[in-house]
Amino acid sequence: MESKTNTNEKEINLYDINKRIENEYCHKTAIELTDERLIDKYRECQSVKKSVNKLNIVLSKYVNEENKEKIIEDYLFRIDPCRN
Q1: Contact 60, 68 (CB under 8 A)
Q2: Tens of pLDDT along 44-59?
Q3: Measured between alpha carbons, how far is 29 from 71 in angstroms, rounded to an integer?
Q4: Number of domains making up the chain
């Protein structure tokens, strides 16, 4: 069973955390960190370019240009730049 002191500490901590969020959250920064704003930088990552190039080579052998572009666009968001 939790003591009253322990419960009060949790309440205080949540209050402090919520206050910090109110004070430190920056809406402008959050907007700049959206996928739409960062996609161009993501596409320019060397590891992402390398993965897309590999896929492009394979697809060029088997599918038409239109389908290849659709597949690459779909695959693009599944690439983890840290793992390539």
Answers
A1: yes
A2: 889 899 999 999 999 9
A3: 32
A4: 2
Alpha carbon distance 28, 12 (integer Å) = 29
User: How many C-beta neighbours within 10 Å does residue 79 have?
Assistant: 19
Same domain, 69 and 43: yes
Asked if residue 52 and residue 78 are part of one domain, the reply reads yes
Q: In this structure, are 46 and 83 located in the same domain?
A: yes
Residue 8 has pLDDT above 70, yes or no: no
CB neighbours of 67 closer than 8 A, spacing ≥ 6? 59
Question: pTM value?
Answer: 0.55
Domain that holds residue 45: 38-84
